[in-house]
C-alpha cells in the first residue's frame, strides 16, 4: 500500500471526515453475511452506526485507517479505547471483492501500529467463533490471551514499546 507491496496500487491513510460517504458506500455494499460477521449481529443497515463512529474519530480515543482504490474505500480498520487511556478494541472490515487476499492482515498490522503511535498499549478484538477469516487474522497477530465463550472469541494483544 502507498506504493509498497503487497498492494502498491492502494492508498492507506487515516480516515478523514470527507471520507464519510465512501466509507458508508463500502458498508452498504457488503453482503448480509459480511455485515453479520462484522457487527456480530444481524445488521440490515449499518449507515447510522458507521456515521456515528466516524464522528467519534479524534486520534486520541478513537482512530481509523482506510484503504482506497482510487476514490473507493475498500477497507477500514478502527481502534476505539474503551476507557480513557485504556486498551482499545479493534475492528476491521474489508470489502467483499477484496476479502481473503491478504488485505485484512496488512491493514490489521498497520492499525495496530497506528494505535500504538497514539499511546495504546493493549488491543482487544471480539469476533464470532464461526468467523474463520477473523480468527485466522487474530491468531496471526499473536494474542497474549484468548477467551472463548461459545459464540464469541475475545483476543488480547500487547503492543510492544
Ligand atoms: C475478517 C476480515 C477483516 C479478514 O480480512 P481478509 O482480507 O479477508 O483476510 P486475509 O486475506 O488478510 O487473511 C487473514 C488470515 O485469515 C485467513 N483466512 C482468510 N480467509 C479465510 C477463510 N475464509 N477461512 C479460513 N481462513 C481464512 C488467512 O489464511 C489469513 O491467515 P494467515 O495470516 O495465516 O495467512 C475480512 O474477511 C472481513 O472484512 N470480513 C467481514 C467483516 C469481519 O468479519 N470483520 C472482522 C470482525 S470485526
How would you concisely characterize the structure shown here?
With 161 residues, the chain is an alpha+beta fold.
Q: What do these coordinates show?
A:
This protein has helices at residues 20-29, 32-39, 47-56, 103-117, 132-140; strands at residues 11-14, 62-69, 72-81, 88-94, 122-128, 145-148, 152-158. The protein is globular. With 161 residues, the protein is of the alpha+beta class. Helix 4 (103-117) links the parallel strand 4 and strand 5 (122-128). It contains five helices and seven strands, in the order βαααβββαβαββ. The mean pLDDT is 96. Helix 1 runs antiparallel to helix 3 (47-56). The chain has a seven-stranded mixed beta sheet with strand order 1-2-3-4-5-7-6, sandwiched between helices. It has a domain at 11-120: 3-Layer(aba) Sandwich (Aminopeptidase). The chain binds coenzyme A. Residues 34, 37-38, 91-94, 99-105, 127, 131-134, 136-137, 140 line the site of coenzyme A.
Order of helices and strands: EHHHEEEHEHEE
| Name of the CATH class of the domain at 11-120 | Alpha Beta
Query: What shape does the CA trace take?
Result: globular
Low-confidence stretches: none
Tell me the radius of gyration.
Answer: 15 Å
Name some characteristics of this structure:
32% helix, 7 strands, binds coenzyme A, 161 residues
Write the layout of secondary structure elements.
Blueprint: E1 11-14, H1 20-29, H2 32-39, H3 47-56, E2 62-69, E3 72-81, E4 88-94, H4 103-117, E5 122-128, H5 132-140, E6 145-148, E7 152-158
Parallel strand pairs: 4-5
Antiparallel strand pairs: 1-2, 2-3, 3-4, 5-7, 6-7
Helix pairs in contact: 1-3
